[in-house]
Amino acid sequence: MKICMLVYNSVTRDSRVMREASTLQAAGHEVTVVGVPDSEADAPFDTAEEGVAIHRVHWQEDAMARARRSAPLRLVPSIILTGFVIWGFVVLPWIGKAVLAVLLGVALLYIRRRMRQTKVPSEAVLKHWAEALFAGTARHGEFPPPKSLFPAWIPEILLELALEPVDQLRGPFDRFVRYRYRAQAVAQHAIALKPDVIHAHDCTTLPAAVAVKKALGIPLVYDAHEIYEASAGKRLGAVDYYIRIHQRFLRYVDRFITINRCAAAFYRDAYPFLPPAVILRNAALGEEPFAYDGRLHDAAGLPRSEKILLYQGSYTGDRGLETLVRAGNLLPDGWTLVMMGWGPTEQELRRIAGASPKVRFVPAAPRLELGHWTAGASAGIIPYEGTVLNHWICTPNKLWEYPNVGVPLIVQPFPELRDVVETYGCGWVMPEETPESIAALVESLTGEMLVRAHEACRRFIEADSWEAAYRQKLIDLYGSIPAAKAAA
């Protein structure tokens, strides 16, 4: 059957999306992934492995034009409000000031009250929630979604202002229209493809996916890559937007996929009307054995004898990267921290590193070559901070990308990460997240310990690679969809 996947990135860097698309294409389905352009990839059409078609919808130019045409209408409420305030102060100066003062006071009291109600849980509470989710012992309602700071009558379009700006849409008025126009453009493109199933990756694609479902009367598969209600982003209104999206659109979901048992337990409790979750972890495809060619050492300007502590991935907040870079300066002789990736905090990380020869930065590797770069490391680290529930329950791609080429793990004591390391012996758990403790752990690793952990990596991948544990689950899920049976 024809499957259309939606994702709001340029697709090729998203290993989870491409892994699922390639699996379904190889199983005999016709898969098209509809994404959006970014600075890394903006070609309207591409073809990926297994013949998966990639379409990128260039929606920004049309959105900009529509935003400019509607700008005068958006100014009308502001003009009316400004006129009312001026009239109040000129014609009724004392009454106007008194009314304004009362309104401001009420607004401040309301915001203070709501902020007290939505206080961020402590790390101890987050740890308790994560352990209970992992063990399946959480009581119903013990970990509800965060309460929205904003009442239901605040329109979603205002909450969207809290999300990250889209390229070319950075003006104060343009940001009001960007998500609506993007969803419309992506939905129209997907409808024209006439798929048999629509597959939404991440909650932000749900409005477009539901529009496609309604237009064509087809099943909707929702693939939740994290707990969005526990997003790491602290921008005012962002979490509220994710909650609204789920409250409005989850009832249209016909099949549900998520990343691990903790996420599945959360969604089962928070949204009991969802279909039972099919757990597809971010497991990598198994790598065929190959000889490391030295490319990571060469790019970092290091001799082959130097041991590398590797972080690979995006540079964003709440990932513990500032602490990690500070730890790089404290690593013992013979070890160097290599940061391989990209992201908005790169300049700050470089500033922290300074001119230290113990910290090196290299560009992100192409997805299909990633293993050949990762293989140069002696250990790979996942240093995420325990500031949000999403991190406590995380199972990122790195959890498989490192061991897939024999690189042992250094992880935070989060339940899903700790379980892998302790079950298979393929790494070590950080005692605490400080520069000194990270450096001390690395210094304690003997050659024998590294060899044993390297061997354990293979046992983990043999048991929990994409092919071994998850490929058939995805194929079976699609086989259970009525459209799949009809197509067959």
Overview of this structure, please?
With 488 residues, the protein is an alpha/beta fold. Helix content is 47%, strand content 14%. The chain contains 20 helices and 14 strands. An eight-stranded mixed beta sheet has the order 3-4-2-1-5-6-7-8, sandwiched between helices. Strands 11-10-9-12-13-14 form a six-stranded parallel beta sheet, with helices on both faces. Strand 3 (45-47) and strand 4 form a beta hairpin. Helix 2 packs across helix 3 (93-117), helix 11 (321-328) runs parallel beside helix 12 and helix 18 (447-464) packs parallel to helix 19 (466-479). The mean pLDDT is 87.
Question: Main traits of this protein?
Answer:
488 residues; alpha/beta; eight-stranded mixed sheet; six-stranded parallel sheet; 20 helices; 47% helix; globular
**Radius of gyration from the CA trace?**
25 Å
Would you identify the regions where 5 or more consecutive residues have pLDDT less than 50? Answer: none
Report the major sheet.
8 strands, mixed
Shape: globular
Structural class: alpha/beta
